[in-house]
Amino acid sequence: MSKENIITIDNKQFTFEPGETILEVAQKNNIFIPTLCHLKGATPTGACRVCVVEVKGARDIVPSCSTPASPGMLVRSESPAVIKARKNIIQLMLASGHHNCAIRDFEPDDWTSFHLKVLKDDNYNELCPVWGDCRLQDLAYRYQVTTKALPLSAPNYPMETVNPFIIRDFSRCILCGRCVQACREIQVNNAIDFGYRGAKAKIVAGTDVLLKDSDCVFCGECVQVCPVGALVPKETFQNKRRFEKTEKVRTTCSYCGVGCQIDLTVQNNKIVQINGAEAEPNHGSLCVKGRYGYDFVASKDRLTTPLIRKDGNLEEATWDEALNLVATKFADIKAKHGADTMGVLTSARVTNEDNYIAQKFTRAVLQTNNIDHCARL
Amino acid sequence: MTNTIADIETADVILVTGSNTTENHPVLSAFIKRATLKDKTLIVVDPRKIKLTEHAQKWLRPQLGTDIAWINGLMHVIIKEDLHDKEFINNRTEGFDQVLEIIKKYTPTYVEDITGIPANDIIETARLFAKADKASICYCMGITQHTCGTDNVKSLANLSMLCGHLGKAGGGVNPLRGQNNVQGACDMGGLPNVFTAYQKVDDPSAIKKYETVWGVTGLSNKPGLPVTEMIHKAEQGNFKSLYIIGENPLVSDPDLNHAEKAFKNLEFLVVQDIFLTETAQIADVVLPSFCFAEKDGTFSNTERRVQRVRKAVEAPGFAREDWEITCEIATRMGTPMHYGSPSEIFEEIRKVTPSYAGINWNRIENGGIHWPCPTVDHPGTPILHTAQFTRGKGLFHAIEHQPPAELPDAEYPFMLTTGRILYHYHTGSMTMKSEGLNSLSPECFVEISPNDAAKLDINNGEMVDVFSRRGKIKAKLAISSKAVDGTIFIPFHFAKAAANRLTNAKLDPVAKIPEFKVCAITIQKAA
Asked: Do B225 and A372 touch (CB under 8 A)?
């Protein structure tokens, strides 16, 4: 690496590739710089400015997400000027919308009593649905920002709930634009964009119509990238209990052959949310089925017990009855008509292990090669 | 796929054909759409004006069932203009001379006559595809579900080899597999003619290997029947039992009226599933099993990546794991099959499956591996055929255009093509349990062009009867800009108006795949 491609952040030297931004160099080296609008894989916009840093010799602090690293650059990631700027930005964002997570009553002179108050206040039902999972809230706590002095602005636009999957709460939107980038640059569905100007600014679908009447295909990429509570998955909002334990399980989606990696959020033996995992091959993206089509898992229509046809009707049976009947009938038919009158349809839906056992059973036990599945259908 | 999903985004030209990617592989379609934002060229060849055409530089609209003709047409132009990759053809392939001979007559105007694609579009597309450094072909069931499906695929391979676009990043011939583990079901020998990793069932050395590992004798060396033929034999009364695991052929099979008759002829039908599907409803025994969220195991995706499936919730009631149920039946039939866990099964898979031998659950804990992966220190193979093809040299096939088995006539004047839509999946046994998905797509529809609807004098949303020679369904008419005059699209998800009552069960002679993508129908206002 040539000597020129070295940048100093907080008195430590780091090499960088030409074209890398200050933020990218910092993230690569585990230096924390807060971001809100920054979205991996999309063009940096510098819209929120919460990622500002101080660069020696520069006239003003600069957004690190859109400022390229340059040779010999001296950067301070959290100088007093930077902290002051970030506090201002966060404060304005909090004041601009409906953010009711106790942050606004923050008293910076007593951190401990503030925490106790938060614990008390935050335990009520009218809270923002992403409490505890909100980037703005995290940053407000981190930078100890209060909005007590500022009046809360009234929401410009009513909440939109008339679609099955996504709640749009414009009162909590900070106009960071991540959803727009996710829709236009990551999924390229081009359903939403910035609309109107100034204080009337809003994220609009199409010509400001309802999501369900727009080009939206409910992939939910916007919901996953929303750093606040402006876009919330409806089912999760209804099903997930805020203060009960959840568990995350990484697995593979069971719909098409892309094999998206998904993180299931599980609570009380029930899937309450699915997010795209930041991993190959999907890098966080999902489609409407993969993200929201999981009701079938806990459906009341699931089969729960073996059934045997008796007098024309399927009736509940024990496993012993069912398995013995199957084994006996298969053995009988094999003896009477020969193995080649028998067949097995295995499945493109079950695991490799299940499939392997199905073909082993067909070949080694039934002793025929009459096994197939719906690859052609 | 010969290449990976991420690799598509690095191609200079992407040719998508017979794939409604934004609806059937939405996440993969994002890779294609993103490439167009970076000024890469997208060419869509599809009989419907699908969403992806909005992102494409070119949309070619072939008449249904004329794929060989347009592919041969592209090859004709490429060779005539000397744009083919002679070095690749000489070093890596054989059989080129026969192709040279056959494509002579596929001039752009000859192809226009067959396909309806303007001659000039054939010429321009040929140039775009051949001049690209890296060109990727992505296809799906619109190519394969024809009586000439195998020949369609071979034609695409011809085209790619002709331009040397195989065996490198950003290239390849990429079938997009429609179900989560259809790749794995094939890899695991869920096919009548092969064991795992496509080892032939009539190969004595493969039989010997399996008999040793399984500790059995007498494995049949006679290739078995594909599902389409099992059903045909059942209809004649010569097939006695079926054990169906997680499939719903009574919605997904072609010509359902015949299929139903065939299933009723079976002496014994066992269905193992998570729901009482249309097929389970007529079974003699129904066995409740686990869904993906309840089991540990692996799926192999469309890019041959073997990935972990992990248990997240407990299964309902007395349901049991699929492999466990099958092992129980085997054991009760006198051939004990016992495993402690799915990972123990995977260890046995590795022993008999050369392409999976280097993969184990530890290695894929944090991310999947692309097969072939022969040894534990092998990194896996994201791109196939980089040095040579499986058979050594890539074989060109000289292929002539063949018309579909059934074409429109005075009695059945429309062409029907079937497929999936974004909000549902296959026979709907999973997606139709979601109120949300159902509200976005509540029922079957008959997609028709504005012109055709006007000719029939039927309004959008009116109920229509749709007839083919094999059956009849009733569904709502949906006038759509996606439809092209003369061609009707009906999704096959909906059991209540099952498109497969209309479809033709004529098969491709090699792959035994039915011609879901073309048949003749007529439409009238519902009686």
From this structure: yes
Smallest Cα distance from B501 to chain A, Å: 14
- In angstroms, rounded to a whole number, what is the distance separating the alpha carbons of residues B370 and B379? 8
- The verdict on A222 touching B (C-beta cutoff 8 Å) is no
**Chain B CB within 8 Å of residue A144 CB:** no
Average pLDDT, chain B: 97
Structure tokens at B332: 């009760």
The DSSP annotation for B504-526 comes to ---B-TTT--B-TT-EEEEEEE-
Radius of gyration from C-alpha coordinates of chain B: 24
ipTM for the whole complex: 0.96
What mean pLDDT is predicted for residues A289-299?
97
Bridge partners (DSSP) of residue A267 are A270
Q: How confident is the model at residue B399 (pLDDT cuts 50, 70, 90)?
A: very high
Contact A331 B281 (CB under 8 A): no
CATH class of B5-176: alpha beta
- pLDDT given for residue A1 in this prediction: 47
DSSP per-residue string spanning B449-472: -HHHHHHHT--TT-EEEEE-SS-E
Q: Which residue has the tokens 């505890």?
A: A132
Share of chain B above pLDDT 90, in %: 100
Using a CB-CB distance cutoff of 8 angstroms, which residues of chain B are in contact with residue A289?
Answer: 422-425, 431, 437
Let me know if domain A166-237 sits in CATH 3.40.50.1980.
Answer: no
Nearest C-alpha in A relative to B276: A303
With tokens 């009701």, the residue in question is A295
Domain spans of chain B? 5-176, 414-525
Q: Is A83 on the interface with B (CB under 8 A)?
A: no
* pLDDT of A148 higher than 80: no
Locate the domains of chain A by residue range.
Answer: 6-78, 83-143, 166-237, 240-298, 307-376
**Residue B379 neighbours by CB distance under 10 Å:** 10
Searching chain A, which residue's CA lies closest to the CA of residue B221? A369
Q: Which of B145, B220, B430 sits opposite A296 (nearest CB)?
A: B430
The angle formed by the CA atoms of residues A228, A230 and A234, to the nearest 5 degrees, is: 110
Give residue-wise pLDDT tens across range B261-306. Answer: 999 999 999 999 999 999 999 999 999 999 999 999 999 999 999 9
pLDDT digits (tens, 9 = 90+) for B67-88: 999 999 999 999 999 999 999 9
CATH of domain A6-78: 3.10.20.740
Residue B421 φ/ψ region, left for φ over 0, alpha for ψ in the -120 to 50 degree band, beta for the rest: beta
Task: Mutation target for A interface from B245, B278, B423: give the one with most A CBs within 10 A.
Answer: B245
Q: Is the pLDDT of residue B19 over 80?
A: yes
The DSSP 8-state label assigned to residue B62 in this structure reads: P
Using pLDDT thresholds of 50, 70 and 90, give the confidence band for residue B515.
very high
CATH topology of domain A240-298: N-terminal domain of TfIIb (2.20.25)
CATH number 3.90.79.10 is the correct assignment for the domain at B414-525: no
Look at chain B and count its residues.
527
At residue A10, the 3 state secondary structure works out as coil
Residue A353 to chain B, least CA–CA distance (Å): 6
Chain segment A233-277, per-residue pLDDT in tens:
998 777 777 778 999 999 999 999 999 999 999 999 999 999 999
Q: Which among A268, A197, A262 is positioned nearest to A224, based on CA atoms?
A: A262
Contact A357 B332 (CB under 8 A): no
